[in-house]
Amino acid sequence: MRDIFENLRLTLIIFSLFILTGCSEYNKVLKSTDVEYKYTKAKEYFDEGEYSKALSLFDELGTLFRGSSRSEEVQFYIADSHYYLKDYYFANYYYKNFAKTYPASPRAETAQFKSAYSSYMNSPKSSLDQTETEQALIEFQLFLNRYPNTDLKDSTNTMIDELRMKLEKKSFDNAKLYYLTENYKSATVALKNLIRDFPDSPHREEIEFLIVKSSYLYAINSIESKKEERLNETIENYHKFVDSYQNSEYIEKAESYYADAIRELDKMKF
């Protein structure tokens, strides 16, 4: 047992010395006035995956090399360091700035893609604010417009589809929330906007049925002076639905709302 503890103690001592040596070396690099030495060590740290250390050095070198032939490489290292640290907000900023500053660079395509990808990584789940999702979509589209023959086209389109599905789910959930809280006017508007924005939605059949139902419930709860107009809108929505989904699982329910709307209109004639 004593031997085990002695071995463990020795291991901890060696590890501590290793850490202290590493820190001592890094502090030496930080304090050095030799720019070439710092540049070499910054790249070494980066290649070894020590991105925080590399970033501190590259940030300093970015100022020192500004306007020189090395500025481009250092700026890309700064963006990459943030990227590998999963600092996607800063990565997005630095990649975007790189692509604008060095549009003719062989790294420009990668920078613009990684800028968009960083926004993609910042995109939250559909229940949260989707500003980053929308930003990622814009950036991916700009990337494809600028590099239509890129080797990254398929993966970019896959991510665009994923982001659009997230936006669609957000819109669908919001529309259903209006419906569930009996705000039928807002539900009808939101559902129609959903069809306009996402015409190929896999939920389109359900959405169009909910438009019929919401518009009917909105109509029958309206004041008398508005009821006829809104019941006619329900009938119009019903016809659009059955024209597209004659064999829908919702057809019987849709027909019942249609029939009720007709009866309500007939009553108003007397």
TrEMBL record:
Residues 38-178 form the Outer membrane lipoprotein BamD-like domain. It comes from the Bacteria. Gene3D superfamilies: Tetratricopeptide repeat domain. SUPFAM superfamilies: TPR-like. Keywords: Cell outer membrane, Membrane, Signal. PANTHER family: CELL DIVISION COORDINATOR CPOB (PTHR37423:SF6), SOLUBLE LYTIC MUREIN TRANSGLYCOSYLASE-RELATED (PTHR37423). This is Outer membrane protein assembly factor BamD. The lineage of its organism: Bacteria, Pseudomonadati, Bacteroidota, Flavobacteriia, Flavobacteriales. The gene is bamD.
